[in-house]
TrEMBL record:
It comes from Sphingobacterium bambusae. Residues 345-743 form the TonB-dependent receptor-like beta-barrel domain. It is a multi-pass membrane protein. Keywords: Cell outer membrane, Membrane, Receptor, Signal, TonB box, Transmembrane, Transmembrane beta strand, Transport. It is found in: Cell outer membrane. InterPro entries: Beta-barrel_TonB, Beta-barrel_TonB_sf, CarboxyPept-like_regulatory, Plug_dom, Plug_dom_sf, TonB-dep_rcpt-like. Its main location: membrane. The keyword Hydrolase does not apply. It comes from the Bacteria. SUPFAM superfamilies: Carboxypeptidase regulatory domain-like (SSF49464), Porins (SSF56935). This is TonB-dependent receptor. Belongs to the TonB-dependent receptor family. Residues 120-221 form the TonB-dependent receptor plug domain. The keyword DNA-binding does not apply.
């Protein structure tokens, strides 16, 4: 018995350490990485052993699980910052926090390379925290207009879309949480169906970005990026309440997020916003039927294990927009008289009611993304996304009910992206399937036909880093197949009842082309850097440019396409000079872009189209070679510890080289400046007062008698902002912002507004914005 007891004791002594080791191989190490200024750093590589790595998310958080008790060497690396190497022992779950300090000579590389948002030689501009706060409640395009070189085009004050260096619509890619937005963006009055509240970062990449992002990125890319989910708190969130005087409406938004206690690797977020605004007012009158209603919501999940991250995201955007009824006109004489008068004949009372003509648009996006880090220098990303865009446009009907849409289009899109990243190289495959169907029963012929589109792209990018010089080169090949079926008018044949005969149009088109990029970033001094990027991109003509022949009810125009249009090819050279001094910050973008077979809609003032619905201005799609060139300037100067001056300027020139004429709808020269006084210095960056001035010149570079009305005069606007940040206990914050747009209540029109023929822009507007974060 004694021998058996000794044997049992020896067995227990041998097994207990093993059991103990197994019990302690479930240790979780988590934490956050931030800059010296306290800003979270995303995509920091964290290595804890030869085969164990993790990457911080956009909020700077990381997780390493299933670690055993013992001593570890941990390293952090992030381009543009000095690396960190530490040794420590762990015996239980541990939370760490690291601060990375910039490597001065490479500080400009961080935003481009570290976050892997675009090419290192491209010009990247991000809205500051102040700009994001000031623009809360605005549309995406209105928010981006604070960036030099970005303006807007649209219909009045509720339907606007971004313009980058003179290009818009299908020539700009919008990446919504890493997914290229696929809606009916071909229309000038088809605003992006995105809720800016979902974004933590709003960025613009200028230049031809066809290699990384795909065909259509002739003008640039807009990045709408949510923050990473904060998994270090069980519950956190933010709420916004915004009110405005012009339109007598407001916006509410709320977001909650956290980690699941029983599953610490799992994080979640839910968010929703709603908007209700009535008719907007110019300084002298109400613009009837221009209200807006929105209901948007989204949800996200993220799960991290070992070297894997799984992300799921869903968002819904729903809006109803009124279209100024005075733009829908009955006769030729009436349209000429209204344009000559320059303002509505009718007097409208303020109302929240949205009647025909109006738009009702919904957009749903679902995304699933898996990322696997093989080691610190190699990762694989696989992403699938599905989108459904449902657009309904209503017009005033003479017989049927106004509740029956004149246009009812459903566009579904599926994308699959596979990207392999290894150190300084990326290769990938991207595919896109679009199916557009016009819902029958509208009683009208759709302006664009039904179509199926299939796209496949292959790309590769490599970067070189030699001291102060960074260079990159990339190439891409895309193929697109378009299959079309829909009814069209045969204008040389009339039925017995006097109506125009229709026929069934069927067509197939194949487009393919190559894209390329080559660029360099050179640090002349620790504070002065120079970027140069030469990008080749292309775009196949869209369905409306090829086949439209009818009334575009959303814009109150008659559009006529051309089935013989060829693909656009654009070669853009952009040079950027950056000075990042202690008191002076300066960025200058100088660019030139040659667009071969540029497609544009030319207004024809010598002709209008009369239909049973009324009389409409005629826009005809044409194609010629064009040259765009210009400069964008941004300057900031710290006058004193609390006083700061900022200014931006944009100049663009565009010529039709084939006809030696000016192109229509090109933004005129503009200049913005503002001076702000910080109430509490850097301790509370959102406590300040600011006075701003905007100047937009008259567009003198246009062809006389080529439009229904000459470009409007130049205008000056004054804006005022006062913001106060309150730091509460436990890291909570409360912010109050009061602002006045168009302080002087100036009456003005903008050349890029399609409603300028009939009405003015919005007058004075008071805003009150309350934000709470915990």
């Amino acid at each position: 018995m004694q021998i058996k007891g000794i044997g049992l004791l020896l067995w227990l002594l041998l097994c207990i350490p093993v059991l103990h080791a197994q019990e302690n191989c479930a240790i979780r190490v988590s934490g956050m990485v931030q800059s010296a200024q306290g800003e979270p750093l995303g995509d920091v590589i964290i290595r804890i052993s030869k085969n164990r790595t993790a990457t911080t998310n956009a909020s700077g958080h990381f997780v390493l699980d299933k670690l055993c008790t013992g001593n570890y060497e941990l390293s952090l690396s992030y381009l543009g910052y000095s690396p960190i190497n530490v040794s420590f022992a762990i015996a239980r779950d541990t939370v760490l926090q690291f601060t990375l300090h910039p490597d001065a000579i490479h500080i400009q590389d961080v935003e481009i390379i570290g976050q892997q948002q675009g090419s290192l030689s491209s010009s990247v501009h991000r809205l500051s925290a102040q700009q994001v706060q000031e623009n809360k409640g605005q549309t995406l395009a209105e928010s981006l207009a604070d960036i030099s070189g970005v303006s807007t085009i649209g219909m009045g004050n509720s339907i606007v879309k971004p313009v980058i260096n003179g290009l818009h619509s299908n020539r700009i890619l919008i990446m919504n949480n890493g997914v290229r937005q696929e809606g009916q963006q071909w229309g000038v009055e088809h605003a992006p169906e995105i809720d800016p509240f979902i974004a933590d970062r709003l960025e613009v990449i200028k230049g031809a970005q066809g290699v990384r992002y795909g065909a259509d990125a002739l003008g640039g890319v807009v990045l709408v990026t949510p923050a990473g989910i904060n998994m270090d708190k069980a519950l956190s969130g933010n709420f916004d309440l915004l009110g405005r005087s012009n339109g007598r409406g407001g916006v509410m938004q709320g977001s909650l997020e956290g980690a699941v206690k029983s599953i610490p690797q799992l994080g979640w977020r839910v968010q929703a916003s709603t908007k209700k605004i009535g008719d907007y007012e110019t300084p002298d009158y109400v613009v009837g039927n221009t209200g807006v209603e929105e209901l948007n919501y989204s949800g996200a999940l993220t799960y991290q294990w070992n070297s894997n991250t799984l992300e799921a995201f869903y968002s819904h955007f729903g809006t109803t927009l009124g279209i100024f009824r005075g733009a829908h006109i009955g006769t030729v004489a009436d349209i000429e008289a209204r344009i000559a008068y320059g303002r509505p004949f009718e007097a409208y009372d303020f109302s929240y009611k949205i009647e025909a003509p109006r738009q009702r648009v919904s957009h749903d996006l679902a995304k699933l993304k898996w990322t696997h880090h093989f080691h610190a220098d190699r990762s694989l990303e696989v992403q699938y996304a599905y989108q459904r865009n449902h657009r309904r446009e209503y017009d005033v009907r003479r017989v049927e009910s106004d509740d029956l849409p004149m246009a009812d289009m459903v566009l579904s899109a599926q994308t699959m992206d596979v990207v392999l990243k290894q150190k300084n190289s990326s290769i990938g495959v991207q595919s896109l399937i679009q199916i557009n169907n016009n819902t029958p029963g509208t009683g009208t012929t759709p302006i664009i036909p039904n179509f199926d589109s299939y796209n496949l792209g292959l790309f590769a990018i490599h970067q070189f880093h030699i001291g102060r010089l960074h260079a990159e080169a990339g190439g891409r090949y895309d193929f697109k197949y378009l299959d079309v079926a829909g009814y069209r008018y045969r204008r040389d044949a009339v039925n017995d009842d006097g109506s125009i005969e229709q026929y069934l149009l069927t067509d197939t088109r194949r487009f393919h082309n190559a894209s390329g990029t080559v660029g360099a970033l050179y640090h002349i001094t620790p504070r002065l850097s120079w970027k140069s990027n030469l990008g080749l991109a292309w775009r196949a003509p869209s369905a409306n440019e090829l086949y439209s022949d009818g009334v575009h009810h959303g814009s109150a125009t008659y559009e006529l396409g051309d089935q013989q249009l060829r693909s656009e090819k654009g070669l853009k050279w952009m040079n950027t000079l950056i000075w990042n001094g202690e008191r002076l910050q300066f960025t200058a973008d100088v660019y030139a872009q040659m667009l071969y077979d540029y497609i544009y809609a030319q207004p024809n003032p010598d002709s209008v189209r009369q239909t049973i619905r009324g009389t409409f201005p005629l826009f005809v799609y044409q194609q010629h070679d064009a040259l765009f060139y210009g400069a964008d300037l941004k300057l900031g100067y710290q006058l004193s510890a609390k006083l700061r001056y900022e200014a931006t300027a944009s100049l663009i020139r565009a010529k039709n080289l084939t006809l030696d004429t000016y192109l229509p709808y090109i933004p005129s020269d503009r200049f913005q400046q503002g001076i702000s006084y910080a109430l509490f210095g850097e301790r509370q960056p959102l406590s300040y007062v600011k006075l701003a001035h905007r100047f937009v010149a008259r567009q003198h570079r246009y062809e006389a008698n080529s439009d229904y009305a000459a470009p409007p005069p130049a205008y000056y606007l004054i804006d005022f902002v006062a913001s106060k940040q309150f730091d509460l206990a436990s890291g909570r914050q409360f912010n109050v912002l009061f602002s006045v747009d168009n302080v002087c209540n100036t009456a003005y029109k903008d050349y890029m507004d399609r409603l300028r023929y009939f009405t003015h822009q919005m007058g004075r507007n008071f805003n009150l914005k309350l934000s709470y974060q915990f």
